Amino acid sequence: MVEKLDMGDIVGVNDLKENKQLWKELLAEFVGTFVLLFLGLFSCIGGSVEQISFAFGLAVASMAQAVGHISGCHINPAITLGFLIVGEISILKGLFFIIMQCLGAVAGAGVVYLSLLDTLMGNNLGITSPAANLHVGQAILIETLITFVLVIVVKAVSDSDRIDIKGSAPLAIGLSITAGHICAVPLTGASMNPARSFGPAVVQNSWDNHWVYWIGPNIGGILAGLLYRFCFKQSSPE
Length: 238
Hints:
single chain, 238 residues, 10 helices
C-alpha cells in the first residue's frame, strides 16, 4: 500500500503546531552559527591558511558536539538545503533554520567587528571573494565542490541506518571543513557556507561577487543531498 503524503509534514505546518522543541532548535542554529563566525573570523585577522582552516573546522566540530543533539547543528544553509531537497526536513523548518543561521552569522561578525574596530586598519574582516586571477565561474565550481564534500560527510555520519560508524561524527565534519579550507582559502576564501559569507558582508556592507557564495555552496549541498539519498543511503535492516 502506498503511503499517503501529508502536506502538513512536507510544508512544515505540523512542525509549527506539534514540535514543542522547535524554539530550542532555532536557538541552537543561531548560537552555533554565532560561535562559528565569532571564532572563525578572529582567525582571519593575520592568520595563516592553516590557522584559518583549523579555526573554522574546530569551531564546527565543537558546536556539532554541543548542539548537534538539539538541531543537528546544520549552522549552514547549504547543509539545510541538502536535507530539505530530499525531504528530510520540512520547508518551513528549513526556512526558519536558514533565517536563524543568517542572523547568528551577522551577530557573530558584528561582535568581532566591534571588538576589532580600532585595530582593523583597512583590513577586511573575513570577506570572502574570488582570487584576482579567478573567473567567477571557476569560483562557483570550487565552492560547489568543497561544499559537496562537506555535505556528503554530514549526510553520511548522520545516517541513522548505518551501524559501522565508530569514530566521532563532529570530528569527521570538522575535518572535512578543514580540508576544504586548506585547499581553497587562497582561491575563494573557502566559504562552504552562505551564512559564513553573509555575516561579514552585512556588517561591512561589502557585496562584490557575494552571490557566488550562495550559488556555489547551495549547488554543492543539493548535489550531495541527492547523491547520498538515492545512491549511498543505507537501507533499514529488515
